[in-house]
Amino acid sequence: MNGVDNATDLSFNCILCGDDGYIRGEYGGRSLVKTSCNPIPHVFHLECITRWFDSDQQKVKRLDERQCGECNQKKALPLIRMNGMRPLEDESP
Fold first, then answer.
1. Phi/psi at 54 (5° precision)
2. Which of 14, 24, 63, 93 has its CA 20 to 30 A from that of 51?
3. What value does the mean pLDDT take over residues 53-73?
């Protein structure tokens, strides 16, 4: 055994880019975030969901109206970091 407990890893697939991964906070140097969708938040790479929110389809909407890339729920924001489970403080245009 290598001493790494993989039982806490949760597999996911970023539907925006198609990459498989494991939730550990960072995957291959890519930050993971979850949406505020209720009752089930969705997990994305931060760069993928940011691109989605900045897409032509979404950028015509106010920030609080931008929809989740998976379920189209309007309460996708704020995004929550997977490694610390705290809201993102980074500013985005």
1. -95, 5
2. 24
3. 91
* Domains of the chain, CATH where assigned: 10-77 (3.30.40.10)
Average pLDDT, stretch 70-91? Answer: 73
> What average pLDDT does the chain have?
74
Q: For tokens 């498989």, name the residue.
A: 20
Phi-psi group of 72: left, alpha or beta (phi > 0 → left; psi -120 to 50 → alpha; rest → beta): left
Q: Which two tokens stand for residue 60?
A: 């015509």
For residue 63, what are the CA distances in angstroms to 2, 11, 39, 68, 90? 44, 29, 20, 11, 14
Strand segments (E) across 1-93: 10-13, 20-23, 26-27, 30-34, 43-45, 80-81
